[in-house]
Design goal:
The chain has helices at 9-15, 53-58, 60-72, 87-94, 105-117, 165-176, 192-201, 213-219, 244-249, 251-270, 272-283, 287-294, 308-323, 332-335, 339-344, 375-382, 421-430, 441-448, and strands at residues 24-28, 31-41, 75-82, 100-104, 122-131, 137-141, 157-160, 186-189, 206-210, 224-228, 236-243, 301-302, 359-363, 370-372, 387-393, 400-402, 407-411, 414-418, 437-439. It is α+β, with helices and mostly antiparallel strands. It folds into three domains: 9-132 and 236-344, Periplasmic binding protein-like II (D-Maltodextrin-Binding Protein, domain 2); 137-232, 3-Layer(aba) Sandwich (D-Maltodextrin-Binding Protein, domain 2), CATH 3.40.190; 359-448, no CATH class. A hairpin with a 2-residue loop joins strand 1 (24-28) and strand 2 (31-41). Helix 3 (60-72) packs antiparallel against helix 10, helix 4 (87-94) runs parallel beside helix 5 and helix 10 (251-270) packs across helix 11 (272-283). The radius of gyration is 23 Å and the shape is globular. The protein starts with 8 loop residues before the first helix and ends with a helix. Residues 81-275 form the SsuA/THI5-like domain. This is ABC transporter substrate-binding protein. InterPro entries: SsuA/THI5.
Length: 449
């Protein structure tokens, strides 16, 4: 927002070099000279990297702004602010201190509600990554835990971040299991890192979190999957929100951001290994974990489009937040604004909907992975190879998981992988006549030869 010149000329000249945050201007005698755009992102929520970590490292937004600045005589700067969750981004936006932010579907709704309440309305203008079944959220438990299914959580302590997408998954999953989310478990509202430490210390029985915490903990041997969010079969996604005032005052800058996001999305989709390595370097996360979510067959599909099925899912999220008394209500249709993305994406390619995931093998020293039509083929190819990571889709939900962390079922000549023990057991119980049985990873590898 521009500051009007009301002081004597000498004072105006004295203040000219100063820059205010959040789309702010430094005024000179002839008008604004410097504009700072403040962007909030979540570096370790790697489903947002095309509007955050990866975008920042590629410098595409700065390039777009430099081109704009050369035309209008303004110097544009970007203030990137990194947070662990969406809540502080919303706090900054509704205080008028941040222009653009990225967060998950449930936090987006809170963002919309808080913005309206505090007279700083926001708009959803793009998606970063999504999973049409909900596989981006997972409930995990300790490696040695005796818990085998979500039903076993009754009366247990569960850590989550209240108001997050992972909390929404936990609430819905508990309800489907016949457990009252308010009284059937002891829910602890914790930051993801705090919850991860609590799980390791044994002070909680399970952790419900969003990408990439479950995958990271499983990869490091600090957790095992208890519930695959894709079992809900409800889309989940992360998206980009903008202050309405900023979008109105600087529509071109918003379109620059969205064009840069499109370029980052192209880069991630065409160079998934390089993108994973880049995000890993920036965040300290293992590249193998980043690739689990952001790879060619990853759990997340990256596409900025505001797909109807995602907007419908957002509407289904509202009652969950209302029941938790986190929002009084949200007019989703009024919150969603597809026009800036339409303007920014003119002439660019449209991405197809997510395809069924395939098994994937990443060998050490390779900048490309190999995909396979079946888990058996992957296991055969992995034998004797210098494997960096191997991934297999859940036989029912399609959620990609680490092959050595999956639960395997042998059924005649077929080998099937599952994210959770409960998923594998359900399959075996339904196919007793075929001789289906649970086997460990080593036996699965031997059977594949």
């Amino acid at each position: 927002m521009r500051t009007k010149a009301v002081a004597p000329l000498a004072l105006v000249l004295l203040l000219a070099p100063l820059v205010t945050a959040c789309g702010g201007d430094a005024e000179g005698a002839s008008g604004p000279k410097t504009v700072t755009v403040t962007v909030g992102y979540q570096s370790k929520t790697i489903n947002t990297v095309t509007a955050g970590t990866l975008l920042r490292s590629l410098g595409y937004f700065e390039q777009e702004l430099a081109a704009r600045g050369s035309k209008d005589g303004v110097t544009y700067k970007v203030d990137w602010q990194d947070y662990a969750t969406g809540a502080p981004i919303t706090a900054q936006m509704t205080a008028g201190k941040m222009d653009i932010g990225s967060m998950g579907d449930f936090p987006l709704l809170i963002n919309a509600a808080r913005g309206k309440e505090l007279k700083q309305p926001t708009r959803l203008v793009a998606v970063t990554g999504y999973n049409l079944r909900g596989g981006l959220n997972t409930v995990v438990t300790a490696p040695g835990s005796k818990l085998e299914s979500l039903a076993d959580l009754r009366g247990k302590k569960v850590s989550t971040s209240v108001g997050s997408a992972a909390d929404g998954t936990l609430v819905r999953a508990l309800q489907r299991a016949g457990i009252d989310p308010a009284s059937g478990v002891e829910k602890l509202n914790q930051q993801p890192s705090v919850g991860a430490s609590a799980l390791q210390a044994g002070s909680v029985d399970a952790l419900s979190q969003f990408v990439a915490w479950p995958g990271q903990l499983a990869y490091e041997g600090r957790a095992k999957a208890l519930y695959d969010g894709a079992e809900l079969n409800l889309p989940t996604f992360h998206g980009v929100t903008v202050r309405e005032e900023f979008a109105r005052e600087r529509p071109g800058v918003l379109e620059d951001f969205l064009r840069a996001q499109l370029k980052a999305t192209d880069h991630l989709r065409t160079e998934p290994v390089a993108a994973a390595e880049s995000v890993a370097k920036e965040t300290g996360l293992p590249a193998e974990v980043v690739y689990l979510y952001n790879g060619a067959n990853g759990i997340a599909t990256f596409d900025p489009a505001l797909r109807p099925e995602l907007i419908d899912a957002l509407k289904q999220d509202v009652p969950v937040l209302k029941d938790a008394k986190l929002v009084a209500g949200v007019d989703v249709d009024a919150f969603v604004d597809p026009e800036p993305l339409k303007r920014a994406s003119e002439g660019t390619q449209q991405y197809p909907a997510a395809a069924a995931a395939r098994s994937e093998l990443w060998l050490k020293g390779q900048t490309r992975t190999q995909s396979f039509d079946s888990p058996r083929e992957l296991l055969k190819a992995a034998r004797g190879g210098d494997v960096r990571a191997a991934y297999v889709p859940d036989a029912v939900t399609g959620t990609l998981w680490f092959a050595d962390k999956a639960v395997w079922v042998a059924e005649g000549p077929e080998l099937r992988a599952f994210v959770t023990p409960a998923g594998a057991k359900a399959y075996v119980d339904a196919h007793k006549g075929s001789g289906a049985r649970i086997v460990d990873f080593a036996e699965a590898g031997a059977l594949a030869s």
